Amino acid sequence: MIQSRAVVATAHASRYLQQLCKHWSHKFETEFDPTAGRIALPLGEARLAAGPEALTIDLAVDEAGKLPDFRAVVVRHVERFAFRETLRFEWT
Known about the structure:
single chain; DUF2218 domain-containing protein; UCP028291
């Protein structure tokens, strides 16, 4: 498995985690509560953790070529929910 992580500074981490999980729960297997979430997507698995000052996003894929697309899909969706603030995603 190839993994990537972004820690995104925001005071609204729990809200974004829950919105993302609810959004994708209609099509994909999801598990979530206010502080942790897991989404099984065709591109790979996303695990999210909400803290008081940041949203941590961990992605896991089986092929390195899928990682850029997976990152872009997650960023696009989180940014849609966070339209009132500008978020910075720095992937490692």
